[in-house]
Specification:
Layout lengths: L5 E4 L12 E5 L17 H7 L2 E5 L11 H15 L8 E6 L1 H15 L7 E5 L11 H4 L9 H12 L28 E6 L5 H13 L4 E6 L13 H18 L7
Parallel strand pairs: 2-3, 2-4, 4-5, 5-6, 6-7
Antiparallel strand pairs: 1-3
Helix pairs in contact: 1-7, 2-3
């Protein structure tokens, strides 16, 4: 789609009334690894509970290409989707996890600049909104977050994404959290989920505060004791509850018909 490989999944029991509605998902993996196939478990339960399709796009990993390729690919997919008469912007939700959670806000900012119609809803899971070592919890949760530590797991992928040009880490197309409040003013209703043991906690809070300051209908959902992208552990009660929360958000803002049991 738009020259970018995509995978579309349709959940069992989806109502026909929801056939013209879709989630566009940008997966996690620090732009270094991951794919729609390996990250499908991040979306499947939410899609099933909401009764809506998911489109995951395979943006280029940094072993293949560096910024701005990934942002251009995301924009190409979105443009292709809204140019197809089957999907109207009011029937589209964007969803980003971790690195994808930074890519999607950057996509929305680019869409605004190009005067494209925006989607109906935005879901952010543990968003990596700033590729510099910003936010208090990037330091205070060092050793408590079992997955992330800037110098060990984030700095190298960040530098790989910008092809070694540290100045680009300050660019709002790379680190959308660095954008001013004005850039967020036309964002759709947004739900942000984050674990309280996630090093991106401070960044998620700062993103949420900018959205609220911009007048966006923004909800913030913190999860006690949970780590980075805990929602992928579908056997956890907390993950199951988080997916139910996501589904309720999507049902509301995409005006989805209740799925068949």
């Amino acid at each position: 789609m738009g020259g970018v490989p995509v995978t579309i999944g349709t959940p069992h029991g989806m109502k026909q009334q929801n056939a013209d509605k879709i989630i566009v998902f940008a997966h996690a993996g620090a732009f270094l690894k991951g794919s729609c196939h390996t990250m499908w478990h991040h979306t499947a339960m939410t899609a099933y509970l909401a009764g809506v399709k998911v489109l995951c796009f395979e943006y280029s990993l940094t072993s293949e290409a560096t910024f701005p390729t990934q942002l251009n690919e995301a924009l190409a997919v979105y443009k292709a989707l809204i140019s197809n008469n089957r999907y109207k912007p009011k029937n589209i939700a964007l969803w980003g996890a971790s690195a994808g959670g930074g890519l999607v806000p950057a996509l929305l900012m680019q869409a605004q600049q190009q005067k494209l119609p925006l989607p109906a809803a935005l879901l952010l899971m543990s968003p990596w909104g700033d590729m510099t070592k910003s936010g208090d919890t990037m330091t205070t949760l060092n050793g408590y977050d079992p997955m992330l530590q800037y110098e060990l797991t984030l700095q190298q992928p960040a530098m790989a994404y910008v092809n070694g040009d540290a100045k680009l880490l300050q660019d709002v197309r790379v680190s959308p959290l660095k954008a001013g409040i004005e850039a967020f003013k036309k964002f759709p209703p947004t739900l942000t989920q984050i674990g309280l043991r996630d090093s991106f906690l401070s960044q998620a809070i700062m993103m949420h505060r900018k959205l609220r300051a911009a007048g966006v209908d923004a909800s913030f959902s913190p999860w006690e004791g949970m780590w980075h992208i805990f929602q992928g552990e579908n056997q956890l009660p907390e993950a199951q509850e988080a997916h139910s929360e996501n589904a309720a958000f999507l049902v509301k803002h995409l005006k989805l018909a209740a799925r068949s049991e």
